Amino acid sequence: MRYVKIDNLKDGMVLVNAIYDNRDKILLRETNKINPLAIRKIRELGYAGVYIYDEDEIPVSTTIIPDELRIRAIRHLKKLDVDECLEIAGMIAESLFRMPMKLMETIYLSTAENYTYSHCVNVCLLATITGIGMELTEPEVTTLAQAALLHDIGKSVVAPEILDKPGSLTQEEWEEVQKHPEYGYNILKRNDMISSVARVAVYEHHENVDGTGYPRGLKGEKIHLYAKIIHIADVYDALTSKRCYKDAMNPADAMEYLMSKAGTMFDATVLQVFLRHVALYPIGCMVKLSNGKKATVVTNNASFLSRPIVKQEDGCILNLMEHPFITITKLYK
């Protein structure tokens, strides 16, 4: 299985995941072969890339949660259906709690138009896995998942032309964007089904531990733990996503950015847990090895994420845990 950028798709490649349009309808089913018309439609929808099978591969599921649950979450986020989103967040938390290996190791696909909603689902997954890694109880993880799924609900009040502006924001526009945590808190305050803890996490998810964040400039321990977790997940997914005004950063570079902000933007302890549960080199990504060969990441070693199992272009499988003198020198964008 390989992750292939849209410009490198070729006629006859076989899809790993189903492709959905902006109305959440299946455009192409998994294991379908791609043709030139499909490539054009995928490009028009704004996908950055897709997963495809190599010729000798046996189809296997790569999704951390079922596509149906992801699409259901996106649909109800669009409707601002808080009650339904709370139920879906609970299902996500339960699913991840029972998952054998708590590791995010695939790139999630989304259309450009659905970015905001897909981003909320991704942040929910990342935050939930981190919460489990921090040994929160299942009820605590469920509350965290609810806050994470709804963390950007306040953006529904902000004008789309500001959120999707390709150029720099004016000072007035940036001040409006900075109000979205408060908008979100006020929306959720109307619903008795969501806990005060989840509302606080939504309100504080842009606070930095050094006090430079917003909306209140809180510092350190005054910021709720769930907000600290969501903050890291939010920034990581934003960095690794393609937007109208920027290309996606590769995961390894995004991790470097997060680490550079430990103790200023992010809580260092929470960040350490996050880094143990999100793969530096997602499955299917192309890398360059120190032996000069290109390879595809096949499997991650959960105990040492910088040493995955890779498949070289010549078909040779290498477990980098067993080859200490071969390292990854580059992750191809």
Description:
The chain is an alpha+beta fold. It folds into three domains: 2-53, Molybdopterin biosynthesis moea protein, domain 2; 67-277, Hypothetical protein af1432; 286-331. Helices cover 40% and strands 11% of the residues. The chain has a five-stranded antiparallel beta sheet with strand order 9-8-7-6-10, with no helix packed on it. Strands 1-5-2 form a three-stranded antiparallel beta sheet, with no helix packed on it. Helix 4 crosses helix 12. The relative contact order is 0.11.
**Rg estimate, integer Å:** 20 Å
Given as residue ranges, the uncertain stretches (5+ residues, pLDDT < 50) are none
Distance between the termini: 16 Å
Number of domains in the coordinates? 3
The gross shape turns out to be globular
Class derived from helix and strand content:
alpha+beta
Share in helix: 40-55%
What average pLDDT do the residues reach?
A: 89
CATH class placement of the largest domain: Mainly Alpha
How much of the sequence lies in strands comes to 5-15%
Total of helices: 12
CATH architecture of the largest domain: Orthogonal Bundle
CATH-defined topology of the largest domain: Hypothetical protein af1432
Spatial order of strands in the largest sheet: 9-8-7-6-10
- Beta strand count: 10
Largest sheet: 5 strands, antiparallel
N-to-C SSE string, H for helix and E for strand: EEEEHEHHHHHHHHHHHEEEEE
At the fourth level of CATH, the homologous superfamily of the largest domain is Hypothetical protein af1432
